[in-house]
């Protein structure tokens, strides 16, 4: 099969394609985060309780995580361009449905659609990065994707709040849904799956794709990437999407304005830390998993210091803890870079789907675990949690950090043994600081 190169790799066209795909990812993050400033309005509009309100976020993430493996299979068969388009269509329909929803069941269905469309976007963008950029460029571009994608969360804060005040519920969310139509045109006109005449998309039966999933899962590098994503991402996701605001306001005694400001400021720290982590990953490819574990260690220590205070912790300490936690976002992106080193490009969608499920699965379990513990230890009116309740409940995170660290260490050892056996010389190349990417010789199991 021809692999004639017809476009330059890592040059102007690659950056243009990436920018369009990045815009789709920013929109996906915006849709994912859009309920953050609309929670009180949603409670009034649908007449729902706090637990029902939380169901919106949990269901959306559950759909997102549950679709990662099927999406990975579809991505390897149909390519990034088609999945970006399908994701945009589904997200646009979901947000438009949310704009006009007048009952709780309809609104829940709309948020589930948003989760389904969102599930197709990020792994599609990462696949484009892998095929359109040089090996030395890919780690930094991957970090930039994760960092700049958080602009969607910023847009879901102040701008959406202003739109809700000016246009009302239907107008604001209806306007947000229309952005997807514009991006559909941009994807059709500008995005191409590969710089080669043969686009690298494997046109085989879905049954064969599903069977090959076992081989991708059997590769220890895939699971190393998944557990790296698992251990580093969940704390930030749980904090920003559900429990951070009540922890700061009810537990630490911050004002709502101060808590909201910190949540927005974390996006800036994600960008700063991501640049540093991206440079370290590119410079020390053999030690990528150690970089992840170091960040998780700092995160866990600072959380422990905050939770040991039987009174509200000093604001500077809470900010330091939050910044360490925000560094987990860029650290989780290292999981995709790890999987790339072990995976041929024609099965990268499956590998990235498995990696991406790690952090979101951990987030769902942690969100639920914190909620259960809060209910067990709290003996006051619903929702009136205090510092003592949060000091116990937030310790749930340590169970998942512990599990993740053990698994990262386990699969790092297995991954290095796999490379030494199957690709002699790869480890020495990375030890010298040179990037190494899978030569694409075929699927590999253990």
Automatic annotation (TrEMBL):
Main subcellular location: membrane
Entry keyword Transmembrane helix: yes
Subcellular location(s) of the protein: Cell membrane
GO annotation, cellular component aspect: plasma membrane
Keyword list, A-Z: Membrane, Transmembrane, Transmembrane helix, Transport
Domain of life: Bacteria
Protein name in the entry: MFS transporter
């Amino acid at each position: 099969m021809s692999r004639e190169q017809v476009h330059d790799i890592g040059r102007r066209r690659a950056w243009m394609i990436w920018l369009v795909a990045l815009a789709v990812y920013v929109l996906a993050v915006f849709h994912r985060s859009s309920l953050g400033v609309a929670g009180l309005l949603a409670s009034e509009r649908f007449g729902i309780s706090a637990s029902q309100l939380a169901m919106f976020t949990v269901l959306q993430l559950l759909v997102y995580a549950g679709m990662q493996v099927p999406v990975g299979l579809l991505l390897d068969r149909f390519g990034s361009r088609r999945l970006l388009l399908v994701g945009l269509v589904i997200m646009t329909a979901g947000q438009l449905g949310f704009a006009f929803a007048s009952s709780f069941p309809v609104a829940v269905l709309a948020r589930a659609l948003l989760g389904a469309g969102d599930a197709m976007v990020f792994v599609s963008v990462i696949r484009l990065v892998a095929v359109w950029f040089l090996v030395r460029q890919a780690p930094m571009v991957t970090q930039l994707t994760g960092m700049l994608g958080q602009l969607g969360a910023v847009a879901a804060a102040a701008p959406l709040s202003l739109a809700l005040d000016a246009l009302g519920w239907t107008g604001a969310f209806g306007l947000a849904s229309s952005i997807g139509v514009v991006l559909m045109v941009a994807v059709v006109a500008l995005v191409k799956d590969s710089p080669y005449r043969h686009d690298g998309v494997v046109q085989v039966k879905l049954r064969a794709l599903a069977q090959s999933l076992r081989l991708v899962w059997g590769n220890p590098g895939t699971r190393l990437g998944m557990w790296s994503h698992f251990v580093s991402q969940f704390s930030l996701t749980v904090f920003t999407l559900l429990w951070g605001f009540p922890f700061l306001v009810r537990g630490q005694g911050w004002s709502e304005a101060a808590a909201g400001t910190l949540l927005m400021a974390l996006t800036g720290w994600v960008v700063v830390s991501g640049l540093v982590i991206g440079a370290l990953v590119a410079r020390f490819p053999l030690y990528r998993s150690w970089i992840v574990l170091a960040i998780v260690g700092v995160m866990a220590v600072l959380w422990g210091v905050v939770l040991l205070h039987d009174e509200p912790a000093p604001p500077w300490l809470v900010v330091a803890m939050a910044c360490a936690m925000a560094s987990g976002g860029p650290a989780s992106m290292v999981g995709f870079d790890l999987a790339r080193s072990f995976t041929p490009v024609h099965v990268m969608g499956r590998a990235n789907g498995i990696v991406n499920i790690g952090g979101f699965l951990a987030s769902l379990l942690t969100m639920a675990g914190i909620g259960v513990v809060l209910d067990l230890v709290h003996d006051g009116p619903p929702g009136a949690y205090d510092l003592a309740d949060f000091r116990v409940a937030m310790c749930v995170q340590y169970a998942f950090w512990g599990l993740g660290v053990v698994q990262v260490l386990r699969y790092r050892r297995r991954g290095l043994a796999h490379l030494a056996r199957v690709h002699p010389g790869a480890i020495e190349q990375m030890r010298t600081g040179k990037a190494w990417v899978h030569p694409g010789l075929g699927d590999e199991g253990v």
